[in-house]
Write a structure and sequence with these properties.
Elements: E1 4-13, E2 18-26, E3 29-35, H1 39-42, E4 48-51, E5 56-59, E6 61-66, E7 71-72, E8 75-76, H2 81-90, E9 93-101, H3 108-119, E10 126-132, H4 138-149, E11 154-158, H5 169-182, E12 185-189, H6 193-205, H7 212-217, H8 220-237, E13 241-243, H9 249-260, E14 265-269, H10 271-275, H11 278-281, H12 302-312, E15 317-318, H13 351-360, H14 366-380, E16 398-408, E17 427-437, E18 440-444, E19 447-448
Parallel strand pairs: 1-4, 1-5, 6-9, 9-10, 10-11, 11-12, 12-13, 13-14, 14-15
Antiparallel strand pairs: 1-2, 2-3, 5-16, 7-8, 16-17, 17-18, 18-19
Helix pairs in contact: 4-5, 5-8, 8-9
């Protein structure tokens, strides 16, 4: 039996268009669009009709950077794939790309299998995987080819965290050379971890143990230096490069320069760098620990350069780097030693709303909102046009969004499995009302109607965003 749904009367907003149109959904996919009120639209027949009058009809968000159940700093990220994808849906995100982890001494396959086991049967929305490469050797390089055939087409490396995830320049170059051959995309955590560790040791020796010193030792110049080095290594390898969680104006300048040279270099930033700052890290009574993440929050003056980068396309994507740790019992591990605070912030539920607030505030346009949150992440990571747009043939991942509803962000009302909100008390305009994932209602007029296990693993093609 085929099932049909029509969404009537809304303003359909994609990265390229805004049109008052009705959307016909059939068997989990978008079958047709027609301008509202026209004979073509009125001919749409369906068992279910959703009235979107006065609302936006937008593609489900694609969050290309999440860490559900990530082991880190002697503990685990507090959101499971079940709680995290449910929270994502509440925030209008219908696809996440999470990171499977290769441990040193183990194969990529072991890491990927572990993450498949965590996610399978537990997700409320669709999911895909990147692969963290922690141990570059000849076997790892061969495995990269095999993973690409399975739809895991991007590989993350770390210039930070010596002894955990760190890769040296030689390992990075080898992986980049392999990706230049097999079409994979290297994602880089660009911070000079060797130098940062020296500064951490010196700060602790001086008795500088509070959370604010986390931001002071992870210097913007060391993010910029690593970004520059990653760009040049990618250039030597002839490979594209995607730099994750860009936080500093100096790093944006490195990306802009490389792009002006015509290099396939891309940058992502996150809501925390656009809306939070070192003022949060300096909050008294260890409250600053809530805001410890890497790359760290920067002084407020960096925000304007990040917004500019999003407008000029020197930065292409806004993801969350959602990696929540509870304040009680997890962030508290670092009392008296900021280097022991688990690095990460909750945000998968807040991203679409915060970026809509940026539209309200005049930082970006409506279409740019959809571009950086839905379309470009889908294109960057080989999910387009199945995900990231509203067009015939695309998955019916659709959000009915009320642009006028007001809300106050709070841990008391969010759905992430974490005991604080990074945006506690922040007032925003715009709110998710209804969410469809492949045509099935996950949120229905502010009620959760989804289920664990609906979300499916989604293999990806290689990057669709290259010059």
């Amino acid at each position: 039996m085929s099932s049909r749904t029509v969404i009537r009367g809304g303003l359909v907003v994609t990265a390229s268009d805004e049109i008052h149109a009705d959307v016909l959904i059939e068997d989990g996919r978008i079958a047709a669009l027609a301008a509202s009120g026209t004979p073509a639209a009125e001919a749409f027949a369906a068992e279910q009709v959703i009235d979107a009058t006065g609302k936006y009809v937008i593609p489900g968000g694609v969050d290309a950077h999440t860490h559900m159940e990530l082991p880190f700093g002697g503990t685990f990220a507090s959101d499971t794939f079940e709680t995290g994808t449910r929270a994502a849906a509440w925030g209008g995100t219908t696809t996440i790309v999470d990171f499977a982890v290769q441990s040193v001494g183990h194969t990529l396959r072991e890491g990927l299998d572990t993450w498949h086991a965590k996610a399978e049967g537990n997700c409320a929305v669709d999911y895909a995987f990147h692969m963290i490469v922690s141990d570059v050797n000849q076997e790892t390089l061969k495995e990269m080819d095999l993973l690409i055939e399975e739809g895991v087409t991007s590989f993350k490396q770390f210039m930070a965290y010596p002894g955990v995830f760190y890769s040296d320049d030689g390992q990075i170059l080898r992986a980049m050379q392999r990706s230049a051959e097999n079409g994979g995309l290297i994602m880089m955590h660009a911070e000079n971890g060797i130098a940062i560790d020296v500064l951490v040791e010196q700060a602790l020796a001086r008795g500088e143990t509070d959370p604010r010193y986390h931001g002071e030792v992870r210097k913007a110049l060391l993010e910029a230096e690593a970004t520059h080095r990653a760009i040049r290594l990618a250039q030597v390898a002839g490979a594209p490069l995607y730099v994750v969680h860009v936080s500093a104006m100096e790093a944006v300048a490195e990306l802009a320069r490389a792009r002006d040279e015509g290099l396939n270099v891309f940058g992502e930033t996150c809501p925390q760098y656009l809306f939070l700052s070192t003022d949060n890290l300096a909050e008294p009574d260890f409250e600053g620990a809530k805001y410890v993440c890497s790359t760290p929050l920067r002084p407020k003056e960096h925000q304007a350069r990040l917004w500019q980068g999003l407008r000029t396309n020197d930065l292409q994507v806004v993801s969350t780097d959602h990696c929540p740790f509870c304040f009680v019992g997890q962030k508290e591990l670092g009392r008296g030693d900021f280097s022991k605070i688990p690095n990460g912030l909750p945000g998968v539920e807040n991203r679409m709303d915060l970026l809509h607030q940026a539209v309200v505030d005049g930082h970006i346009s409506r279409r740019r909102w959809i571009e950086i949150a839905c379309a470009t992440p889908a294109r960057m990571f080989g999910l387009y046009p199945k995900k990231g747009t509203i067009a015939p043939g695309a998955d019916a991942d659709i959000v009915i969004y009320d642009p006028h509803a007001e809300q106050v962000m709070s841990a008391e009302t969010h759905h992430m499995n974490v005991d604080y909100s990074a945006y506690e008390g922040k007032r925003t305009t715009g709110r998710v009302e209804t969410v469809l994932s492949r045509g099935e209602p996950v949120i229905t007029e502010r009620e959760y109607t989804g289920r664990a296990g609906h979300g499916a693993f989604t293999p990806r093609s290689t990057c669709q965003y290259l010059n």
